[in-house]
Specification:
Layout (H helix, E strand, L loop, with lengths): L2 H17 L5 H16 L4 E4 L3 H14 L11 E3 L4 H10 L7 H7 L5 E5 L6 H13 L2 E7 L11 E5 L4 H19 L3
Parallel strand pairs: 1-2, 1-3, 3-4, 4-5
The structure holds D-altro-hept-2-ulose 7-phosphate and zinc ion (ZN).
Length: 187
């Protein structure tokens, strides 16, 4: 396969996934409503995931705290993927599985929305973070793909991308993340 073939294949696969997202639009709008209500009522958005999904969590938290497109006040969102002292101490003392759940225990309130990104839906630390958020009574959102994995049965809102290909799932996640930010800061 030539480089151009490889690129064409990725672009075509990407396009097919984005087209197939259409049935998810009502659920994406429902998640945006939940986020808007949370922020209007003094809650905050917590986000986490591994690898590319850690980057997605940070990216979306930055859009919410800073701005997506519109001038407005800063809104509270925290990516639980950024503090290396917390990640290394909790990882070292309790285990990598607990790097998110421990922070959820410390920071989450019932007024919050907790968003777990996992393309497989099965990353143990993401699953445990979501389970802790449920215990606390926060609204939980899964950003996943494929079958949705374990997260699909755990969360109040489940956005499962219509592919099992990790990069294509992540590309759809970031489109949805941006769209959620757009709706969160709409009048
Ligand atoms: O970005 C990528 C692959 O595109 C990787 O860094 C990927 O996020 C990592 O392998 C993650 O550990 C995968 O975890 P998950 O999405 O299954 O929860
Ligand atoms: Zn990636």
């Amino acid at each position: 396969m030539t480089a151009i073939d490889t690129l064409k294949q990725a672009f075509n696969e990407h396009q097919a996934v984005i087209t197939a997202l259409e049935p998810l639009l009502p659920e994406i709008a429902a998640v945006a409503d939940v986020m808007r209500n949370c922020l209007a009522n003094g809650g905050k958005i917590l986000l986490f995931g591994n690898g590319g999904s850690a980057a997605d969590s940070q990216h979306i938290a930055a859009e919410i705290v800073g701005r997506y497109k519109k001038e407005r006040r800063g809104l509270p969102a925290i990516a639980l993927t950024t503090d290396t002292s917390i990640l290394t101490s909790v990882g070292n003392d309790y285990g990598f599985d607990f790097i998110f759940s421990r922070q959820v225990e410390a920071l989450c309130t019932p007024a919050d929305v907790v968003i777990g990104f996992s393309t497989s839906g099965n990353s143990r630390n993401v699953v445990l973070g979501i389970e802790k958020a449920r215990e606390i009574g926060a609204i939980t959102v899964a950003m996943t793909g494929g079958t949705g994995g374990k997260l699909a049965n755990l969360c109040d809102h489940v956005l499962t991308m219509p592919t099992s290909d990790t990069p294509r799932i992540q590309e759809a996640h970031i489109l949805i993340g941006h769209s959620l930010c757009d709706l969160v800061e709409a009048d």
